What we know:
Layout: H1 4-16, H2 22-29, E1 38-44, H3 63-71, E2 73-75, E3 78-79, H4 85-94, H5 98-101, H6 117-123, E4 127-132, E5 145-148, E6 159-162, E7 165-168, H7 173-187, E8 194-199, H8 237-241, H9 263-273, H10 278-298, H11 302-337, E9 344-350, H12 369-372, E10 376-379, E11 388-390, E12 394-395, H13 399-406, H14 421-424, E13 435-440, E14 452-457, E15 460-465, E16 471-476, H15 494-510, E17 525-526, E18 535-538, E19 558-559, E20 574-577, E21 581-592, E22 595-602, E23 613-619, E24 625-632, E25 643-650, E26 655-664, E27 681-689
Parallel strand pairs: 1-8, 1-9, 2-11, 3-12, 4-5, 4-8
Antiparallel strand pairs: 2-10, 5-6, 6-7, 9-10, 13-14, 14-15, 15-16, 17-19, 18-21, 20-27, 21-26, 22-25, 22-27, 23-24, 23-26
Helix pairs in contact: 3-11, 6-13, 7-11
Bound molecules: 2-deoxy-6-O-sulfo-2-(sulfoamino)-alpha-D-glucopyranose and calcium ion.
Amino acid sequence: xxxxxxxxxxxxxxxxxxxxxxxxxxxxxxxxxxxxxxxxxxxxxxxxxxxxxxxxxxxxxxxxxxxxxxxxxxxxxxxxxxxxxxxxxxxxxxxxxxxxxxxxxxxxxxxxxxxxxxxxxxxxxxxxxxxxxxxxxxxxxxxxxxxxxxxxxxxxxxxxxxxxxxxxxxxxxxxxxxxxxxxxxxxxxxxxxxxxxxxxxxxxxxxxxxxxxxxxxxxxxxxxxxxxxxxxxxxxxxxxxxxxxxxxxxxxxxxxxxxxxxxxxxxxxxxxxxxxxxxxxxxxxxxxxxxxxxxxxxxxxxxxxxxxxxxxxxxxxxxxxxxxxxxxxxxxxxxxxxxxxxxxxxxxxxxxxxxxxxxxxxxxxxxxxxxxxxxxxxxxxxxxxxxxxxxxxxxxxxxxxxxxxxxxxxxxxxxxxxxxxxxxxxxxxxxxxxxxxxxxxxxxxxxxxxxxxxxxxxxxxxxxxxxxxxxxxxxxxxxxxxxxxxxxxxxxxxxxxxxxxxxxxxxxxxxxxxxxxxxxxxxxxxxxxxxxxxxxxxxxxxxxxxxxxxxxxxxxxxxxxxxxxxxxxxxxxxxxxxxxxxxxxxxxxxxxxxxxxxxxxxxxxxxxxxxxxxxxxxxxxxxxxxxxxxxxxxxxxxxxxxxxxxxxxxxxxxxxxxxxxxxxxxxxxxxxxxxxxxxxxxxxxxxxxx
Length: 690
Ligand code: SGN
Ligand code: CA
């Protein structure tokens, strides 16, 4: 608190004191203060600490990341609060938990109006820039300059979007992202401190290494982790029900670069492989073709096949990291050569951890150690002593307050994390947190990891899986670092179990996350109306892939939920692929009709859009129709969250027997959409007649 006056003062600088130069003010008003540090925030995607030699990797060497660790502080216990990409990034930017910033999973569009640390730094006079993976779907806000990959991006010859404009750049993504960052540093305004976010796509799935690394590890057998053949004996069903196993889930072509399994697999692989130039393809094929021939000959089966898959997966993963590490070396050299190393806070982290064969898995999401732990290394020679390991419990929500602290800005009330600066200085503050709270939401979703929340102390972990399961797990990490022995139901641990449960309840309250219902998709509801059970005829058929509850599904009195969640359960809807919905409902007799309401789903990420128009006509005999009412969509097609929208058309209460509903599809996806020009979908559920 004793710093508040100076901080408040600095904060006002950004907004009002433009006429006076910053160094002048700093020297006249705060003589003891050095210029504010630059911030270089390097983040990779899915880089597990088990694959960093500074963290004791048994499988690879990362000399440049190790250099950073030996010159700075390495956090042993830094955790993601929701171990998946977009949520972790949103927590980092805003200093808040998923349930506060809204990005509970990878489907939600980040609301860029929120307070973020780049915005506050920018206001306070920093020049801010962002390069590489973004994945938050809305356009970045708070940056003087940005150049990002659309979505997940490509490894080879990726598209980049620079301040809104897309172009294709030839080369390998990790090198290119670094080039862009170094170029920007070279041309920045040197009068201002900078904050640059260098966010690599690598080593995200589908793990495509740079050509120069294709033969790394060629003659080695990478050791498997201790828990490679975990049988989940003591665990809840969540571990058994996942879909992220080395054995079953990895796709032969796209992930393993061998012969395609399904059509989907072949399509994914083509999408990645076809980005390459003929020369790149040549070098690529030279590396994989003979390996694949050998594998075909060997005809691996059973445990042998699982081992082969692991080797293919882990080697490509580690090869991707080799390029990351080299490029970090380039950036550190650049700082040295330009006299920037002393006064720049350099951070290396990853959005969350990853399973490298532990428990037989890849991917993340679970609150188990490998995916929960973020590598986190900070170097700032001016203030941080070299080569220290910090054991305090840190979390991704702490990053924003930490950066702000270095810039002399008070973290806004809304931010739930705390500045790590005291820990970085080696001063464990007496009231530091004793547990980190965690909450994972993306279920149903890719990889089938069930919803769960929990806490992790320096020694114990408590997890509760919920939604379509209700199960507890508890681990003693000191006795059981591999989390093989679930203690939740062990009688001798019941006192501890109760204590941790109480603590978890308290943490949920403290963090304002005691209303998880808010993020649960609703359940279908039974409703009464005039058309329930009526006969219905469709002019154009629904897609057999999305029949809803069958032919009569639009008038069966079962309504898909109002709250669809961030990604609707599509099995509850009837899907129309590129055709109109045209339905004639026969009420079986004359009834006075006051209104007709049709429910539509809008989920733009799945190419599902609201109709252009909805029209209702009525008839007494099914031959002579009178057009009763038309609704026109006034909104332009834009990306947004998944929502259920109802279109209600007022009728005059006249007695009719037949009702015709026509909803005209948008036809094709708009220009800005990844599916631009391709057919879009219409999803409807109940036609409610009242
Ligand atoms: C893709 C991957 C998944 C991964 C998610 C989320 N499949 O869907 O394996 O979990 O991204 O990753 S892929 O076949 O398309 O590669 S995240 O980093 O964005 O959270
Ligand atoms: Ca990730």
